[in-house]
Design brief:
Helix content: 10-25%
Number of helices: 5
Order of helices and strands: HEEEEEEEHEEEEHEEEEEEEEEEHEHEE
Largest sheet: 8 strands, antiparallel, barrel
Oligomer: single chain
CATH architecture of the largest domain: Beta Barrel
Distance between the termini: 66 Å
Length: 516
């Protein structure tokens, strides 16, 4: 390769990197808000496929350090290299399962044992990563995610090289083209993802270690990478959900139904003997989808009668306790007798403990005047999340306090009764783990977004509320010497300050069970 071609190639690479960086920056600044799936536990949940969880990663800037660990010691095979890579895959509850491919190019080696020139590689293989956000590692800020990476695959080489140091001294060079030599590689890495409130573009930086064995010895390619991960189909899911919220479910849905229903030979439909009817009931009591094998699925029983062929589809709309659309399930034709739900919203948000989620089921007819509707509700129990460090966590957003106080004096009688039921259930759950100590954390919502509000008001208020809850648990038989309290104010919000409709989730009490 002559000098002009080298200069031209380097200019093209710099121009490509500039274009990619500009695209990344533009995307980060101009996209809607979503939430990256991470269920807060190590193992994924069994869930139906969602196109919104498909992702694309692009790494336009990789700096690689080629080293060779051979019998003559450690040496640099070539000069520093550049590279780019891409990945497509699926986010399964925080596990990124994808197929990765990349290209790397390196300059001529200058050391005595640098035996390669014009070294180029193309790699392809599967890669598994795990998103560790603040939902899993509580010490992380909301904007930071750690992502360990494991991968393997095949490397295809193209290079001019010397088979030995002696061959180099005698200028006996050997040429290898793509496909002439294929070796298997292994990869370990750790990325730091910078979550900016959107899943449309998540920039990240990381370190990776790639290694493979060739004739000379063990070769390794440590590298520093910069990239961005995107969930492109989330935009279309968000728009479709917004259309449903404004237009209702009066029209037959065009989307292919998600495979949520248990297979049934035929719906429970009686012979026509009266007007068409629909009734949905919830079989599961104290719905707790926390992965312990007990009440992890909400089961809906559907009863219909006197239906004709004009009914072409159905929808179930589940609301959160504040009335916002939380989950939409839908299907074509008549509904089966039983339907199940795993407790996650369309955006991958988990249900909260000790709350009631209203739901409405509709049967859709070609004649909209014949549409049928039935209402019910799902009541959640106390969810116990298993954390990656072996500890347990219970999160409660449904304890009512007097405004800006740690008392129960002016709340309604209905709210006082709800508090009693919730605290009884919490004490019962905590009593199942006598070998754990309990840290009660008070959390608040920083409405102003100022540190002054947090320090002067929210930190002491959240501490007082944690102490009040501790006293309530003592009255319910939990030993005081097992418990400690802390007020964290608005330091660890679940939803960002811009999401005013979700502020109620930031005002909460968390119970961290730590094994003795």
């Amino acid at each position: 390769m002559n000098k002009k071609r080298v200069i031209s190639k380097m200019k093209n690479i710099r121009f490509f990197r500039l274009i990619m960086f500009s695209a990344m920056l533009f995307t980060v600044l101009t996209v809607p808000l979503f939430a990256e799936p991470d269920n807060g536990r190590f193992l994924p949940e069994k869930e139906q496929f969602s196109a919104g969880n498909m992702y694309v990663s692009l790494e336009p800037a990789k700096m690689q350090i080629p080293l060779s660990f051979a019998r003559f010691g450690i040496t640099s095979m070539t000069k520093l290299g550049y590279g780019l890579a891409g990945e497509i895959g699926y986010n399964w509850d925080g596990w990124l399962i994808g197929l990765s491919s990349g290209y790397s190019g390196f300059g001529r080696g200058v050391g005595d044992y640098s035996l390669m020139e014009n070294f180029n590689t193309i790699s392809i293989g599967p890669r598994i990563s795990r998103v560790l956000s603040s939902r899993t590692l509580k010490f992380l800020p909301d904007w930071l995610e750690l992502v360990p990476v494991v991968g393997f695959g095949a490397n295809f080489f193209k290079t001019d090289y010397y088979k030995s140091k002696r061959a180099k001294d005698e200028n006996r060079m050997t040429h290898v083209g793509y496909g002439d030599v294929v070796v298997m590689y292994a990869q370990l890495g750790l990325h730091a993802d910078f979550y900016l409130g959107t899943d449309w573009a998540i920039p990240y930086a990381g370190i990776e270690y790639n290694m493979f064995v060739d004739r000379i010895g063990l070769a390794s390619l440590p590298n520093i990478t910069i990239g961005v991960r995107s969930y492109p189909f989330r935009f279309f899911e968000k728009n479709k959900k917004a259309e449903k919220k404004t237009a209702g479910a009066e029209k037959q849905p065009e989307k292919k139904p998600e495979p949520q229903a248990e297979p049934q030979p035929k719906p429970q439909t009686e012979e026509p003997s009266g007007p068409p009817s629909l009734k949905i009931t919830v079989e599961t009591q104290d719905f707790t989808p926390d992965g312990d094998g007990v009440n992890d699925k909400a089961v809906f029983n559907v009863q219909t009668s006197s239906l004709d062929d004009s009914y072409t589809g159905w929808t179930i709309t589940i609301l959160d306790p504040k009335g916002a659309v939380f989950k939409v399930m839908e299907g074509k034709g008549l509904p089966p007798e039983k339907l199940t739900w795993n407790g996650y919203s369309d955006e991958g948000i988990h249900v909260e403990s000790a709350l009631v989620y209203p739901l409405t089921m509709q049967l859709l007819s070609e004649d909209s005047e014949k549409n049928l509707s039935s209402e019910s509700s799902i009541e959640t129990g106390i969810l116990v999340d298993r954390l990656i460090d072996g500890n347990l966590r219970i999160r409660i957003v449904s304890i009512f306090f007097d405004p800006s106080a740690a008392t129960f004096n002016v709340i309604t009688e209905e709210q006082k009764l709800a508090n009693k039921r919730t605290l009884d259930k919490i004490a019962q759950q905590i009593g199942r783990f006598p070998e754990y100590n309990l840290v009660i954390e008070g959390h608040a919502n920083n409405t102003s977004g100022t540190e002054d509000e947090n320090i002067k008001f929210l930190l002491p208020l959240s501490k007082e509320r944690a102490e009040v809850i501790s006293a309530e648990l003592v009255r319910r038989g939990i030993p005081a010497d097992r418990m400690s309290t802390v007020g964290l104010g608005g330091n660890f919000p679940i939803v960002p300050r811009e999401d005013k409709e979700g502020w109620w989730r930031n005002r909460r009490v968390e119970f961290l069970l730590k094994k003795n």
